[in-house]
């Protein structure tokens, strides 16, 4: 019996030693869902992140474009995906912050996600028509107050970050203006170029050609620092409104229940990409501000502050979208 027991133990130990080990994450390709159409700067950011992360993780990171419903189609899909670290979302202020506050039904909850990277900020520029007698934000505030609410501002639609940023600016300056929404940036800028509207908060890359051609005046940028592409244009904060900051952002998010070890590896790989010189040069040249890597606690604080910032504007103006 003793010999039999020893034989059984030896057999069991042999099984234990020969049992296959659990594969270390990642052991297969990772999917990065980009909820935007191919070709734009947001898609370029997603593809550059995927390429850099693939080098770090030693696995392909495959981009899947899933546009629709102001990012909600792609975001819903990731919210329902298996939380195993193999499906990642290119998240943004739109999907993670604004949509849940603006829309009655999004098909997901912000708590379904963990934001693991703030990759780039997209600062905005405050532009006006050259006929407007203002060369600074304070000049424009004085001009708008003297006009008694008769000035107009253009945007690309109700609830869009550009419109919300303008409402935020109005509150900061203490002025009244009429909102004139347009279906896209081209007609919104056309109205400003014709002086039918007198102000617009726009994405820098869209307005930059008009600014350089002298067809629009840049009064200020809305981020925390000046831009390399507009070095002589001050921030709103340094123009006398120190608490003002408005920018959209793009980063990465994963389903909330993704294992911590997978989150750590994804975050480390993505953070390394942010430090690479070619990556930084490419996106800074587009007027997109590549962020320094942040720890998880700092990311959480950043997103929460963003929610509070935009939420105040949305509630004050009673903005709701179907």
Structure write-up:
By secondary structure, the chain is an alpha/beta fold. It folds into 2 domains: about 30-120 and about 245-315, D-Maltodextrin-Binding Protein, domain 2, CATH 3.40.190.150; about 125-240, Periplasmic binding protein-like II (D-Maltodextrin-Binding Protein, domain 2), CATH 3.40.190.10. Helix content is about 45%, strand content about 20%. The protein is built from 11 helices and 10 strands. The protein has helices at about 1-20, 40-55, 70-80, 95-100, 135-145, 160-175, 185-195, 205-210, 260-275, 275-285, 295-315, and strands at about 30-35, 60-65, 85-90, 115-130, 150-155, 180, 200-205, 215-220, 245-255, 290. Strands 4, 7, 8, 9 and 10 form a 5-stranded antiparallel β-sheet that branches. Strands 2-1-3 form a 3-stranded parallel β-sheet, sandwiched between helices. A two-stranded parallel sheet has the order 5-6. Helix 2 links the parallel strand 1 and strand 2. Helix 2 (about 40-55) packs across helix 9 and helix 4 packs parallel to helix 11. The radius of gyration is 24 Å and the shape is globular. The mean pLDDT is about 90. Pfam families: TctC. Belongs to the UPF0065 (bug) family. Keywords: Signal.
């Amino acid at each position: 019996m003793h010999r039999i027991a020893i034989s059984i133990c030896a057999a069991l130990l042999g099984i234990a030693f020969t049992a296959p080990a659990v594969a270390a994450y990642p052991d297969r390709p990772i999917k990065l869902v980009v909820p935007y159409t191919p070709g734009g700067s947001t898609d370029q950011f997603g593809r550059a992140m995927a390429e850099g992360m693939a080098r770090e993780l030693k696995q392909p990171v495959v981009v899947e474009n899933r546009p629709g419903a102001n990012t909600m189609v792609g975001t819903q899909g990731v919210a329902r995906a298996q939380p195993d670290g193999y499906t990642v979302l290119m998240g943004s202020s739109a999907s993670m912050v604004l949509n849940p506050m603006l829309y009655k039904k999004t098909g997901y909850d912000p708590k379904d996600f963990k934001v693991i990277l703030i990759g780039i900020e997209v600062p905005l520029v405050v532009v006006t028509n050259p006929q407007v007698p203002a060369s600074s934000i304070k000049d424009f505030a004085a001009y708008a107050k003297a006009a008694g609410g008769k000035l107009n501002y253009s945007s690309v639609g109700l609830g869009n970050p550009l419109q919300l940023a303008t409402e935020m600016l109005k509150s900061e300056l203490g002025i009244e203006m009429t909102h004139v929404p347009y279906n896209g940036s081209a007609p919104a800028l056309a109205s400003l170029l014709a002086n039918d509207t007198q102000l617009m908060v726009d994405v820098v890359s869209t307005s930059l050609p008009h600014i350089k051609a002298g067809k629009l005046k840049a009064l200020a940028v809305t981020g925390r620092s000046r831009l390399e592409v507009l070095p002589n244009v001050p921030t709103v904060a340094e123009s006398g409104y120190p608490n003002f900051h408005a920018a959209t952002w793009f980063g990465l998010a994963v389903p909330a229940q993704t294992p911590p070890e997978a989150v750590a590896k994804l975050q480390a790989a993505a953070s390394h990409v942010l430090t690479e010189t070619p990556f930084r040069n490419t996106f800074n040249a587009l007027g997109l501000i590549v962020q320094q890597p942040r720890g998880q606690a700092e990311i959480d604080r950043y997103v929460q502050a963003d929610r509070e910032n935009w939420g105040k504007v949305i509630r004050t103006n009673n903005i709701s979208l179907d």
